[in-house]
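S1.2 Input.
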Amino acid sequence: LKASEKGMKAMAEKGVVGVLLPGTAYFLMAESANGRKMVDLGVPVALSTDCNPGSSPTVSLPFIMNLGCLKMGMTPAEVITATTINAAHAINRGKEIGSLEVGKKADITIFNVGNYMKLQYSYGVNHTDTVVKNGQVVVRGGQLVEELSLS
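S1.3 Output.
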C-alpha cells in the first residue's frame, strides 16, 4: 500500500516524516514508494533497512541508500539527509542525533570516497573507513576494532 498524492500532501502539511523501506520493495519484488514525489511535495523522507527475515533481510544501510537513488529517484544529497537528520526526526530524536551540531551526540561514519555522490554511484560497495560511536573509534581502516565497550 502506497500513499496517494493527496496523502503525501497531507503528510507534508502536517510535517509527518515518511519512512520509506526500499529494501522491502526490492526483496518482495514490489514497486518502490515514490520518494521523488514525496520530496517534491515537501514530505521529509527517512530511509530504513526494515531488517527482518520476512520482507527485508539486509542490514546494509549503504545498499538502502543506493536503492533510494536507483529505485526511488532521490538524489545522493537527499538520501544522506534521509538516513541522518530525517531518520533521527522520525524517531523523535532530531534534537539529540542525526547531524553534526554542538550539543548533539557525535556518532560519525567516514567514507573512503572522493565526494558524497560516490556513495550512491558505486552501489553494492562498502565504502566505510572509520566509525566513531559514543566517542570511541569502533571501525578503523574498514575493520572492526577488537575491544569495544559501547554501553
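S1.4 Remarks. The chain has one domain: 5-144.
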